[in-house]
């Protein structure tokens, strides 16, 4: 051993060590106290979370997510009745379904950026409060326009809930098997919300007016907001920056133009208005990319698209919306119109599909050590496609036993997708930007779902099997694209 290492510390060395220790303590104390007046702490210095806190976070965020998806799917069952109540012509009925996806797609990335920068708990609570109020107000709408505007507002509030939920979960479960389990549970509650929304709407529409569905959902969401104020702990990214307002404006206008073009295209894709809106969407998207490349704190880091996992997550979310959510959003209306089923009967069949998805998503964590998330996405698309093809010829006049096998198989595929997507969304981005990753993933999902709904409604005029075959083709494309983009 060198002689100097064996010597006792000199007075100068001891004093230096003491000073360094004091300095480190001051830095640690300052870091722990950093944040705004509400006591928001930088994520890198946040205290470890207790298992109890993790369970509370998981319970509140999962409940809010389920209610968000219940609100999203409730109009699927009541679409014929709502259209009759408002006198909505067939050309505008897609807006009754696409109002919420429009608000979601436009604001998800903005909500994710705000949550990371200004606090995930804060954005989550504002989102649940806004969703509760706008959902309840939607029950008092008097026309197609006011109902659609209420749905757009619900989508904007839902964006805050979904983007901040995964950010809160990733903070409560930083790594490992517990995070896999938590994201699987969260994904299962996505399926639960999809299942329960039409069932609630169908049950209430048989004993009361369809408007009570939205009043009930609004009250339940406000209750979750109250619980969140008592249980959630604030977190945010270590480096706070200015909100990317220019990028948010460009992206919002681009998505609004795109989704409006897709919705109006049902009456003719070659109309001048549709073409102009599509060109505007392309131009505004190019502007958004230019702004993000130059922004000091971009809303989405475009360099993430070089990462295979992020590419697979984004592609998987987009095709989940196109192939799965788009078709199954209009399935209840197709069954009521083609097979002459009652609303509540179609709700139970829809529950079979989404209930299977719930069970499979909960159990999917057992695949984590055997199957990568990318391959789980591909398997989910394959099963969903197989289930949809099994429904071929059964949507017009066939009895419900003929529908069961296809719905179960498609539900299993949807469950795998719902579990893999949130896992990839948070694992494919830096820890301090998990809400941004969630926002990007859900933006792709709801852009796809809006396009899928418009496409399915347009094709269903030629018969339900046309929409069904298109969904199957898009599902196969989703499996291929996910595997291709996830390589590396």
Secondary structure layout plus pairing:
Layout: H1 3-6, H2 11-33, H3 51-86, H4 93-118, H5 120-138, H6 144-172, H7 176-207, H8 211-231, H9 245-264, H10 272-294, H11 308-338, H12 343-363, H13 373-390, H14 400-427, H15 434-460, H16 464-485
Helix pairs in contact: 3-4, 3-6, 3-7, 3-8, 3-11, 4-5, 4-6, 4-9, 4-15, 5-6, 5-8, 6-7, 6-15, 7-12, 7-14, 9-10, 9-15, 11-12, 11-13, 11-14, 11-15, 11-16, 12-14, 13-14, 13-16, 14-15, 15-16
Largest sheet, strands/sense/barrel:
none
Q: How many distinct helices? A: 16
As a percent range, the share of helical residues equals: over 70%
Provide the structure class.
mainly alpha
The shape, in one word, is globular
What is the straight-line distance between the termini?
Answer: 47 Å
Low-confidence stretches: 1-48
Assess the beta-strand content as a share of residues: under 5%
Question: What would your notes on this structure say?
Answer:
- The two termini are 47 Å apart.
- The protein has helices at 3-6, 11-33, 51-86, 93-118, 120-138, 144-172, 176-207, 211-231, 245-264, 272-294, 308-338, 343-363, 373-390, 400-427, 434-460, 464-485.
- It is mainly alpha-helical.
- The chain contains 16 helices and no strands.
């Amino acid at each position: 051993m060198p002689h100097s290492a064996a010597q006792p510390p000199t007075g100068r060395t001891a004093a230096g060590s003491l000073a360094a220790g004091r300095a480190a303590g001051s830095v640690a104390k300052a870091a722990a106290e950093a944040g705004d007046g509400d006591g928001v702490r930088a994520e890198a210095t946040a205290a470890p979370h207790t298992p109890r806190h993790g369970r509370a976070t998981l319970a509140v965020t999962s409940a809010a997510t389920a209610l968000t998806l219940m609100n999203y799917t409730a109009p699927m069952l009541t679409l014929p009745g709502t259209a009759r109540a408002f006198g909505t012509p067939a050309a505008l009925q897609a807006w009754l379904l696409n109002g919420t996806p429009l608000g979601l797609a436009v604001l998800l990335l903005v909500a994710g950026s705000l949550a990371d920068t200004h606090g995930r708990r804060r954005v989550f609570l504002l989102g649940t409060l806004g969703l509760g109020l706008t959902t309840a107000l939607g029950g008092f709408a008097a026309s197609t326009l006011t109902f659609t505007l209420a749905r757009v507002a619900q989508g904007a509030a839902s964006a805050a809930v979904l983007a901040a939920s995964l950010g809160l979960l990733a903070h409560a479960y930083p790594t490992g098997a517990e995070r896999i389990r938590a994201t699987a549970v969260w994904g299962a509650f996505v399926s639960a919300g999809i299942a329960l929304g039409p069932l609630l709407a169908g049950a209430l529409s048989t004993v009361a007016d369809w408007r009570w569905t939205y009043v009930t959902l609004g009250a339940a969401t406000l209750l979750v907001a109250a619980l969140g104020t008592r249980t959630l702990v604030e977190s945010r990214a270590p480096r706070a920056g200015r909100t990317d307002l220019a990028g948010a404006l460009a992206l919002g206008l681009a998505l609004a133009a795109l989704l409006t073009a897709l919705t109006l295209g049902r009456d003719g894709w070659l109309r001048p208005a549709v073409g102009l809106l599509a060109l505007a969407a392309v131009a505004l998207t190019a502007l958004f990319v230019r702004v993000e490349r130059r922004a000091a704190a971009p809303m989405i880091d475009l360099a993430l698209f070089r990462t295979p996992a992020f590419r697979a997550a984004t592609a998987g979310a987009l095709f989940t919306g196109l192939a799965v959510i788009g078709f199954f959003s209009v399935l209840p209306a197709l069954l009521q119109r083609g097979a002459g089923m009652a609303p509540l009967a179609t709700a139970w069949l829809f529950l079979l599909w989404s209930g299977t998805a719930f069970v499979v998503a909960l159990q999917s964590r057992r695949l984590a050590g055997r199957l990568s998330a990318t391959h789980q996405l591909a398997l989910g698309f394959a099963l969903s496609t197989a289930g949809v093809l099994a429904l071929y010829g059964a949507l017009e006049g066939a009895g419900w036993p003929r529908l069961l096998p296809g719905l179960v198989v498609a539900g299993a595929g949807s469950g795998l997708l719902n579990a893999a997507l949130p896992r990839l969304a948070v694992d494919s981005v830096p820890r301090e930007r998990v809400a941004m990753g969630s926002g990007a993933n859900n933006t792709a999902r709801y852009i796809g779902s809006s396009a899928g709904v418009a496409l399915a409604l347009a094709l269903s005029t030629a018969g339900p099997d046309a929409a069904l075959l298109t969904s199957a083709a898009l599902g196969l494309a989703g499996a291929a694209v996910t595997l291709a983009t996830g390589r590396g």
